Amino acid sequence: MNHLTRALAAGMMTAALALTPALADTPPNMLVVAQNIDDIVTIDPASAYEFTSGEYVANTYDTLVRYDAADTTALTAALASGWEVDAGAKTVTFTLRDGVTFHSGNPLRGEDVVGSWERVVALDKAPAFILKQLGWTPDNIREMVTADGNTVTVRYEGDFAPSFVLNVLAARVASVVDMETVMANAADGDRGHAWLNRNSAGTGPFSLAAYRPAERLVMQANPDYYQGAPAMARVILQHTPEGASQRLQLEAGDVDMAKNLDPNQIAGLDGAEGVRVETYPQAAVHWISFNQKVDALTDPAVWEAARYLVDYDGMADNLLKGQMTVHQAFWPDGFPGAVTETPFSYDPEKARAILDEAGVDLPIEVTLDVISASPFVDMAQSLQSSFAEGGIKLDIVAGTGAQVITKYRARTHEAMLLYWGPDFMDPHSNAKAFAYNADNADDKYASTTTWRNAWMPPAAMNAKTMAALSEQDADKRLEMYRELQRETQAEAPFVIMFQAIKQVAMRDAVQGFVNGATSDYVFYRLVTKE
Fold first, then answer.
1. Are 221 and 233 spatial neighbours (Cβ–Cβ below 8 Å)?
2. What distance in Å separates the CA atoms of residue 346 and residue 329, rounded to the nearest whole number?
3. φ and ψ at residue 9, rounded to 5 degrees
4. What kind and span of H or E run contains 486?
5. Interior/surface letters 430-467, b for 16+ CB within 10 angstroms, e for the rest
6. Cα Rg for the chain, rounded, in angstroms?
7. Residues 6 or more apart from 372 whose CB is under 8 A from it?
8. Cα–Cα distance between 202 and 103 in angstroms, integer?
9. Cβ of 248: how many Cβ atoms within 10 Å?
10. β-strands 364-371, 415-420 pairing
11. Would you tell me which of 29, 331, 392, 500 could form a disulfide with 282, CB atoms 3.0–4.6 Å apart?
């Protein structure tokens, strides 16, 4: 192994960084992960809004507060060593941690915090709404967030519980970037956006070494990380969309970890030497949505019938065995306020009766966009079969993750099979996505499934969503979110079907990997290879 390490240092490591295929028997200080990474649209933390890009940001950047690798369920200090809340004045005052440096070697400053958040609001990319919820605009951001030496004072508008504000500031879009370096690489007024899609400028345990879309993303350890340098000198996310190839590479020792295996491939690893499978509950919910720009999909009877055209148990017990569980509400099970009842089951006769009573002309032909990776294509084929029993013909259109998501954001789809994970760990994150739409106009883009499906919820639902956000009584607030979940089950053009369970296969030597409930809590910092 020493000989191999020396060889890598002399040339093979360079080959790895040049994005050549992974080698068998990976070295002890390198983690090679086989993973489908083609969902990445951008890796700038001001715009990163996909699962894999969230994982990347979590490992290269830090926020002032966060849910950490040591405990993904507890909000802890990160770049801030402490904070004080004044709910009456609607302020949170943070004290920055001493001795933190960016990957460039520049010291962390209060101005970097202010500038990072100003940059997010000014660029106004997909996740910017998370910070803008606090009443921040390009015009007032430097009044709402101020720095004085090692102290950053955050002001917010709205009757929010302080816990909501802290959860917002723990989101990936609140990551702090090295403003001096980023602005030195700005071009044509883009505030360094193009440069940050090829480079990193964070304080995190890793920095970006190389990235080629839909091929490979390489992160290298930050030796000066304030919580200690990672054991892995490099983490390589190697794009391998096919689960069968991932399994073969894992069994051969070419990779240390495989993240996209289907149930049959997981079962096939039973008894494989030197390999184990770990299971991690996930916050992502999987659903079908209907674009309200398509006339044939605007009748609520179509939405209601569709809820009875999913073979929930058949898919969960067979096709998705071990990877998803039936869940029919927008807030995931395991989090306070979740609705866990499953009122819908496969009943094509009932679906046809609903459509007949509403006078819907059958058959209905609908294109269904789906990511061309496991298990989405298999799910789409199952839905195609079961929906046909109700008189709805689904024509499957498969594409890369980036293609499908880009089409979804442009509202040019008809029906969509996709997933949704919370932007931050507060039920308002999903309530705003599934039960609220401030403005349905084409030029009022919002990073919500309501806007992307051109659906305007009833006024009462919109009002309740915002009322729940400001409710100070914790128990009453959760009950309001339960009501919203049941209302969307009955009234929205969505069919929420499953909650994800992540199965990750890895070599026995790999220890310390952390996979929290969302991609923001996938951490490599504690990984070792024994």
1. yes
2. 17
3. -60, -35
4. helix 474-491
5. bbbbbbbbeebeeeebbbbbbbbbbbebeeebbebbee
6. 23
7. 241, 398, 399, 400
8. 6
9. 16
10. parallel
11. 500
CA distance 366 to 416: 10
* Residue 462 confidence class, pLDDT cut points 50, 70, 90: very high
Confirm if 242 and 491 have CB atoms less than 8 A apart: no
Could you tell me the pTM of the whole model? 0.75
Predicted local confidence at residue 18, as pLDDT: 42
Instruction: Give bridge partners of residue 250 from the DSSP assignment.
Output: none
Task: Centre a 10 Å sphere on the Cβ of residue 267 and count the other Cβ atoms it contains.
Answer: 12
**Residue 24's pLDDT band (boundaries 50, 70, 90)?**
low
Q: Within 13 A of 118's CA, how many CA atoms are on the CB side? A: 19
Tell me which residue has tokens 């890009």.
Answer: 53
What region does 491 belong to: left with phi over 0, alpha with psi -120 to 50, or beta? Answer: alpha
Asked if residues 323 and 265 have their Cβ atoms less than 8 Å apart, the reply is no
Task: At 112, give phi and psi (nearest 5°).
Answer: -65, -35
Can you list the domains of the chain with their CATH numbers? 1-61+204-274+508-530 (3.40.190.10), 66-178 (3.90.76.10), 281-502 (3.10.105.10)
Handedness of CA 427, 462, 293, 351 (dihedral sign): positive
Alpha carbon distance 155, 514 (integer Å): 33
Residue with tokens 């802890």: 76
C-beta separation of 323 from 503 below 8 A: yes
| Enclosing H/E stretch for 116 | helix 110-123
φ, ψ of residue 501 in degrees (nearest 5): -125, 120
Tell me if 339 sits within 8 A of 331, measured CB to CB.
yes
In angstroms, the CA 437 to CA 447 distance is: 10
- Between CA 48 and CA 174 the distance in angstroms is 11
Q: Determine the residue type at 332.
A: P
Whole-angstrom distance, CA of residue 179 vs CA of residue 109: 9
Beta carbons of 212 and 237 less than 8 angstroms apart: no
Q: Cβ(231)–Cβ(485) under 8 Å? A: no
Could you give the 3-state DSSP secondary structure of residue 450? helix
Query: What is the tens place of the pLDDT at every residue in 402-451?
Result: 999 999 999 999 999 999 988 788 899 999 999 999 999 999 999 899 99
Phi-psi region of 442 (alpha: psi -120 to 50; beta: other; left: phi over 0): alpha
Cα–Cα nearest to 75, from 85, 63, 67: 67
User: Side chain identity at 378, as an amino acid letter?
Assistant: D
- Asked whether the beta carbons of 164 and 432 are under 8 A apart, the reply is no
Rounded-to-5 percentages of helix, strand, coil across the chain: 35, 25, 40
Helix (H) or strand (E) holding 416: strand 415-420
